[in-house]
Design brief:
The chain is mainly α and 123 residues long. Helices cover 73% and strands 0% of the residues. It has 2 domains: 69 residues, lambda repressor-like DNA-binding domains (434 Repressor (Amino-terminal Domain)); 46 residues.
């Protein structure tokens, strides 16, 4: 299943029209159709969190299906990030799930602030 097929299936699963999904993530319907038809080179990173939240999935669910997402940034980990990964790998599946949910919660809480900061810095 391509990323576009996955997005379309999840959108229908949660009962959203393309217009409703577009409104939830601040894009237009044509953009949603481009995502669903794989008419873009890659899913923009600034859309991952809002799109995942609107589809009731984690950003990781989209990332692992989006083969165009660069892994370069994943390879350039700080020592602190490397320690977090080592600790994460020691967790039970239930513990990992709790951490994943907390990260999704924090990311969704901070996404509006990050977007606002980006808008302010580009003005």
């Amino acid at each position: 299943m391509t990323i576009g097929e996955y997005i379309r299936a999840k959108r229908k699963e949660v009962g959203l029209s393309a217009d409703e999904l577009a409104a939830k993530i601040g894009k237009n319907r044509a953009t949603i159709y481009r995502y669903e038809n794989n008419s873009i080179e890659k899913l923009p990173s600034d859309v991952l969190i809002p799109l995942a939240n609107a589809l009731s999935i984690t950003p990781g669910d989209l990332i692992k299906r989006n083969s165009s997402v660069s892994t370069q940034s994943l390879q350039e980990l700080t020592p602190s990030e490397q320690q977090h990964i080592k600790k994460y790998r020691k967790l039970s599946p239930a513990g990992k799930k709790e951490v994943d949910h907390y990260l999704d919660f924090r990311l969704s809480a901070e996404a509006p602030r990050v977007e606002k900061d980006a808008e302010t810095s580009s003005s």
